[in-house]
Structure formats: C-alpha cells, structure tokens
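Field notebook, page 485. I keep forgetting to write these up properly, so this time I am using the form the group agreed on. The chain and the ligand, nicotinamide-adenine-dinucleotide, are recorded exactly as supplied. Prediction of the bound pose follows.
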Amino acid sequence: MKYSPVQNYINGKFVPASADKSLDVISPVDGALLSKVPMSSSKDLDAAVKSAKAAFPAWSRLPIKERVQVFFRYKYLLEKNLKELAELVSEENGKTYGEAVAEIEKCIELTEFATSLPQLVTGEVLEVSRGVECRTEHVPLGVVASIVPFNFPAMVPNWTIPNAIALGNCMIIKPSEKVPLSCGRLAELLKEAGLPDGVFNIVHGDSEMVTAICDHPQIEAVSFVGSTKVAKIVYQRATSNYKRALALGGAKNHLMVLPDAKEDMTAQNVAASMSGCAGQRCMAASAMVGVGNVDHIIAKICDEAKKIVPGKNLGAIISKESKERIERYISEAERDGAKILVDGRGAVVEGKENGTYVGPTVIDYVKPEMSVAREEIFGPVISIMRTNTVDEALAIENANPYGNAASVFTQNGGLARYIIDHASAGMIGVNVGVPVPREPFSFGGWNESKFGVGDITGKSSIEFWTKLKKSTTKWNPEAGVNWMS
Ligand code: NAD
C-alpha cells in the first residue's frame, strides 16, 4: 500500500474514524492499492460538526476582506504545489497528468474568484422614506456540507470550498470514497494558508455518511455533485429536513454538427470533448446529431479518435465495473444495429495490465431510442444520430431528460443563435466542445442535471452560501413621521 490509511480531518487534525469498516483505494492507472478509506460513523460526523460549529462565531465575525487573505495564500500554495497535486489526482483518478494539471489550474481560477468576493457582496442601502434607511447584508449560513464525486478529486471540492468559506461558513466535505486522497492534501494547504482549525473538516464514507449529513440537525445547507440518481435522493432528503440544497446530477450532452461546420476544428473538438478525462466528465460530448450530410466531418472525427491512445493521451476508467458498464453499452448498440466506426472495447495498456482502460469509441447510425443515445455512459464514447433538419436535432436534444450542456458546430450565426435559444440545457457552446463557463460566470445545468435554485460557482453561488439580512434604521427623530416611521 503506497499511502498510509486515509483519516478524517477534524478541527485541524487528521484523526482515525471511529468505525472499523474501510474500502480499498485502487489506482485505475495500474490497479495498485494506494490506501484504505474509512467508512466513518455518525459519531465522526458529530465531531466534525461540533468543531465547525465552534469555529463559526470567530470565523464568520471576521470581515470578509480578512477572510479572503487565507485564499490569496491558498491560491499561491496551489500554484506552488501544482505538480505534486496533479500527480496525486492523476494517480487516484486515472486521468492523464496533463488533464490533472488542467484540473489544478481550474482550482486556482476558482480560488482567484473567491478572493474577489469582497467586491461582489457589497449589500444595498437606500433611504426608503424620510430619514429611514433600508440595508441588506449577505450573512453566512453556519455549518454547511459539500458532497463530491470521483471525477474531479480536486476541482469539484474547490467549486465549493473557497466560496463557501470566504463567505463566512464552516464546512464539512465528504469526498468520493473512490478518490479520497486529494482532499486531504487540500486540507493541509488550507491550514498552511492560515485557515483556523475547525473551519474546514473532512469526513470520509459512502452513502450512509451522505444520509447522516442530510439528516444532521446542525448542518444548514448541503451541496451535492454526482449522478442524477443520487442527486435526487440528496435533494429530497436534505430539503425534507428543511435544509437548503443544491444537487448537481449527471448529463447527456448533445453536439449538433451542421454541414457548414469547419471540418478540422469540429473533428478535433468533438474528439477532445468525448474523450477528455476518458469521457468521465459531466461536460463531455456524449451524443452527436449530424444535420444533413456530415459524412466528411464524421470521417475526420474517426481519424482524430484513432490518434487518442489509452495510457498515452487517454486516461483510465475509474473502476473495473465502470469499464464493463461502458463496454456493455457499446455491445448493446452494436446488437441494436448501430455501426461501430472506432471500437475501444478490450483496451489493454502494456505494463499496466491491471489498469482499467476503454479506447475512444465512435458509434454511427444510432437511433434516439437506443440506450447509448438516452443514458449517461460516462466513458470515451460518442453516439452519432442523423437528422435532416435543425428542428429535428433540437427535438432529440430537448427530449433527453438531462440538460447540462449542448453545443453547435456551424459557421451560420443565425442558426447558432436559434440553437442557443431552443436547446434545453444550462450551458451552450458555439464551436466549443466543452462549454464550461469560466469565472465569474457560474456553472450549472438544467432539468435532471440540477436540482435546486441557482448555480454552484461564480456569482450565483453567493446566493446559495449566504442569507440576506434586511435592516431598517432611523437615527433622526427630527425628520418627522410618515406612514413608514
Ligand atoms: P455518485 O452519484 O455515484 O457519487 C457521488 C457522491 O455520492 C459520492 O460522494 C458517493 O459517496 C455518494 N453516493 C453514492 N451513492 C449514494 C447513495 N445511494 N446515496 C447517497 N450517497 C451516495 O457519482 P460518481 O460516480 O462519483 O460521479 C459521477 C457522476 O457525477 C456522473 O453522473 C457525472 O455526470 C456526475 N457529475 C456531475 C457534475 C455536474 O456538474 N452536474 C459534475 C461532476 C460529476
């Protein structure tokens, strides 16, 4: 085992969990046992909440300009430790080192945004009647929780950590049990940056811990990122306990390719979008709708896909079960009559035979009713459907229950605008395969890709992590009395 067993992080210290049960942490790169992660009990959660609650009064009372100083230092530490963090992310998640570097760079951008929060959370003030002022302030909620998935072990935690904490909250995070290591390193960097003990806590576990978080009476808000199935469970459970909740779910992103699209650029973007992070990202292109004759572009997409090689410029799939699931989808499509143009099944990387890899896969002549067209595959697979018109393509996109992202590739500005207006997704790309909005714009989908109001990052997150205090004041009795006095 490469690393010592993972521990919880409570009140500024790594501590063993009270429960005996643990799971193996396996590197998808080569199947090596990296560590063991404890399945903590509700007693461990109680200890984390207690430490967060104790830290809250002092932390929340600091002026925000003082709180963000921690994040200026944290940003510097992320930069300083970028290489080491990227290696850890790549090792536990299986993505390529280059992708892991990009993930840490995104953590830096997210932190940079948090340092600008003092400029964005100024309240409002107005003399509403003679001598009477109304004023609003953004007030932190208290102890909040963040539950995160496996596919971005550092970035998704940083969607919530800098903003929630800079806004004055104290946090409990539950990492994915598949990738629990990176979060521990983030805790060390936060401490080194000067974050007071208790403000940030980690409790490891699985679904039982998630339930305990949703039920804990002293946790005010729960953010969740993961699959739609679990997002629904978490949203329902947390809100039924009268907590604020924002739950981001899965995705099935459609790329619409029009015949006038720039061939090379489109092919490169489609291939990169479907295979980046081995297709294990909620912004990956998973379905493509070719409108009219786009055979020339599909041929180039296949050429691009063939340049993507497992173990070289294509990372691993998180687990053996996930690899089997992805390959099952490809086989189902083949059985149902689709044509496999590039086949990634059975990929093995020499010297890493115990790693879990699926090669890039391009499936053509997919019908909208096939499972590869409807369901999230979460692997480097693109399912191509064909239509004659843009409206038919939009009807397919609109009919899918998710709504994270959609993109169009065209040189026609009018049609691009029409697709922006009519696609049923929260994030739209025009000639962009992975239309992630960058800070200060917020990240969030629609439909079954997100439950709750507002977005998880950017300016929109301010509303989620704070509540408004409205005060009405009058200090000049001589101003006379009117109906509001
Ligand atoms: P997951 O839903 O299996 O797990 C997410 C978290 O929920 C983990 O911490 C896990 O321990 C916990 N969990 C798992 N099963 C649970 C249950 N039955 N009850 C309560 N908690 C449970 O997701 P994953 O496999 O880790 O991540 C992949 C999924 O996340 C994909 O569907 C992907 O699209 C989605 N995702 C979405 C976004 C987004 O922004 N919408 C971003 C990243 C990932």
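OBSERVATIONS:
- The CA atoms of residues 336 and 370 lie 7 Å apart.
- The mean pLDDT is 97.
FOLLOW-UP: compare against the apo run.
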